[in-house]
Amino acid sequence: MPVKIMIPGSLRNWFGGETEYSCQGERILDCIDRLDERFPGTKERLINQKGNISNVLIFLNGDNLRNLDGLSTTVKDGDEISIVPLAAGG
Asked: If one looks up domain 3-85 in CATH, what number appears?
């Protein structure tokens, strides 16, 4: 069973309307690389030039990557990655 990436409705235009994507990898970054292979430009939307997550929050099984090992966080079959866009406003 691969790792599942859940795609929120507000970002589906980046992913051809897909609601989820399955990938294989050892780390979150590997899964983002696979996602970028399928949907070119995804990585640069999610990760800035310094290699940090930007414009979104990324969760692994409900835990924010900021509280884990960031993009180096290891994943295993059956894990679920959620991408949540940041909202601005006041």
From this structure: 3.10.20.30
Give residue for tokens 């414009």.
55
pLDDT in tens, 60-71: 999 999 999 999
Task: Record the tokens describing residue 90, joined without a space.
Answer: 């006041």
Q: How many Å apart are CA 79 and CA 88, to the nearest integer?
A: 29
Instruction: Give dist(CA 84, CA 47) in Å, integer.
Output: 13
Q: Which residue, 89, 3, 7, 90, is CA-closest to 45? A: 7
pTM reported for the whole predicted model: 0.89
Q: For residues 40 and 60, give the distance between their C-alpha atoms in angstroms, rounded to a whole number.
A: 22
